[in-house]
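User: Reviewer 2 asked us to show a designed sequence for the structure in our supplementary figure. I'm pasting the structure tokens here. Could you produce the per-position amino acids so we can include them in the response letter?
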């Protein structure tokens, strides 16, 4: 086994173990949250949490850009460059965070956020407080989570997963304490417990790294460099636009369902979405772990290794299809055991659309990581621009005019993803056969 394969195996093992643990915690969280909040409030919770996650787009690709440049600097032991990269990024992200906080503060004073999200007036006050708590601490996490990028650049990418998993474990533990307390069901407590522990963990890792492990690398004003910042932002621009498209595709479903149907429908949809995500998550973790190895293979012109991996991915895809057939036939029993017999209604149409959606996404993923390793992102970028434009209006059209409920939302998503599932394999084969020209080669 060569060095590339041995590193890849280690990365896959750590990522799969951590993801399995994270997934188990997340699956336990859903019935606990529904039991504590009730279905309607749970629907509101997942909607506002997904809404807050949109703030991730404002890193404008800095995370990806920093990882790329910092990994190179660490590998060549360029200490001065490392200091500039870390100092410049922490500074710029802090500036962005301050700006976002001012924008949110003004909007919070001017608008009623629960009205904008079409949330029942009964839950209006606690929804507004919950949004304020989530935004403030999410912005603090926005700065402190850069430590995960630094560890990834040191070839320790699983540290980020450790932090996220610890955050979820604390969230679950505190929720279980809530269930045994006399405190009334409240979105506010759920918001505090979901984000504050995560911030404290990120902050602790920052303190450990900069005070004990590498105090010479602590971000300092004198290390801020406009040229360095420009070099970080430049490669991240394409990823930033793609990220916007991903957020529109993956994070608007709950908001659309809440506005067009109900909070209960959001809860039902979210349970099915989580249930059918199980094989997909493990599949994409395995595929995604190959990204750095693909970069290494391209640098060494080892194209035969890449082709063998793609053939393996396509064989695994057949197993993925089989796993979804099994999940479909046992979905009712598993969901009843997981959530409760009377909580979630049986919806075979939603199940079928979910399965097709995840299979289309998985098939596109087989090729996306190779294309990303080549850095030829133009086709993917334009595809996500189209997806961002059409996904929301198409979802609304399908829900309103075909009267298929929340199934219309996932149907819209799978139609949009079909664009990538067609274009990504075409681009991959063009690149590998040296026929990529024009937009296919950019």
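Assistant: Here is a per-position design you can include in the supplement:
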């Amino acid at each position: 086994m060569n060095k590339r394969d041995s590193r890849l195996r280690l990365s896959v093992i750590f990522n799969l173990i951590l993801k399995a643990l994270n997934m188990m915690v997340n699956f336990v969280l859903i019935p606990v949250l529904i039991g504590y909040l009730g279905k309607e409030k749970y629907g509101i919770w997942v909607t506002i949490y997904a809404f807050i996650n949109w703030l991730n787009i404002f890193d404008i690709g800095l995370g990806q850009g920093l990882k790329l440049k910092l990994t190179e600097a660490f590998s060549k032991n360029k200490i001065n460059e490392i200091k500039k990269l870390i100092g410049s990024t922490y500074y710029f992200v802090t500036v962005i965070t301050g700006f976002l906080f001012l924008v949110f503060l003004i909007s919070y004073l001017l608008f009623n956020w629960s009205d904008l999200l079409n949330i029942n007036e009964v839950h209006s006050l606690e929804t507004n407080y919950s949004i304020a708590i989530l935004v403030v601490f999410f912005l603090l996490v926005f700065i402190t989570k850069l430590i995960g990028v630094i560890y990834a650049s040191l070839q320790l990418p699983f540290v980020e997963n450790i932090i996220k998993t610890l955050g979820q474990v604390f969230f679950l533990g505190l929720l279980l304490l809530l269930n045994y307390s006399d405190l009334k069901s409240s979105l506010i407590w759920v918001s505090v417990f979901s984000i504050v522990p995560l911030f404290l963990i990120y902050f602790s890792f920052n303190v450990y790294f900069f005070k004990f492990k590498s105090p010479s690398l602590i971000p300092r004003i004198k290390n801020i460099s406009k040229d360095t910042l420009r070099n970080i932002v430049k490669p991240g621009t394409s990823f930033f636009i793609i990220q916007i498209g991903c957020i529109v595709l993956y994070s608007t479903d709950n908001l659309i369902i809440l506005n067009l149907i109900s909070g209960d429908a959001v809860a039902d949809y979210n349970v099915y979405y989580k249930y059918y995500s199980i094989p997909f998550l493990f599949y994409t973790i395995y595929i995604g772990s190959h990204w750095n190895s693909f970069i290494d293979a391209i640098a060494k012109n080892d194209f035969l290794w890449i082709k063998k991996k793609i053939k393996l991915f396509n064989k695994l895809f057949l197993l993925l299809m089989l796993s979804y057939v099994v999940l479909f036939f046992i979905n009712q029993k598993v969901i009843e055991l997981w959530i409760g017999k009377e909580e979630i209604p049986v919806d075979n149409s939603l199940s079928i659309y979910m399965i097709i959606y995840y299979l289309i996404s998985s098939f596109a993923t087989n090729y996306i990581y190779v294309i990303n390793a080549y850095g030829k992102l133009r086709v993917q970028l334009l595809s996500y621009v189209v997806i961002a434009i059409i996904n929301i209006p198409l979802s609304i059209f399908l829900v309103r005019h075909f009267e298929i409920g929340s199934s219309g939302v996932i149907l819209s998503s799978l139609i949009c993803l079909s664009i990538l599932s067609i274009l990504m394999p075409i681009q991959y084969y063009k690149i590998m056969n040296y026929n990529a020209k024009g937009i296919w080669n950019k």
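For the response letter, you might also mention the following. The mean pLDDT is 83. The chain has two domains: 1-225, 252-442.
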